[in-house]
Amino acid sequence: MVFKVEAKTAIDESRSWVRIAQNRLLALSDTSDDPAVLQAAADALARMFTALGEIESRLGTVDEEWARLFQPRPARSTGSRLDGNAPAIT
User: Fold this and answer.
1) FRET label pair with 45: which of 3, 27, 74, 88, CA 20 to 30 Å apart?
2) DSSP string of 9-45?
3) pTM of the entire structure?
4) How far is CA 2 from CA 7, 9, 31, in A?
């Protein structure tokens, strides 16, 4: 669970920096001599932003799988009596 929190924090920070960089590139492309290059870089960042969402989704799936693995198993009964005392064998 600690790993999930740290990974989620890292993904959120990465997403924020990608968004900032993408917006800055788009703003600069308006005044650039070669706006196509900056637009291409912004498009690459958009794909990166999407990939971060996919990673977050996979992380959620892995976390659910680990949670299922660590759930306590139900106790199995070995006898037919509910009090847990086996009948004496004579």
Assistant:
1) 3
2) HHHHHHHHHHHHHHHHHHHHHTT-S-HHHHHHHHHHH
3) 0.66
4) 9, 11, 45
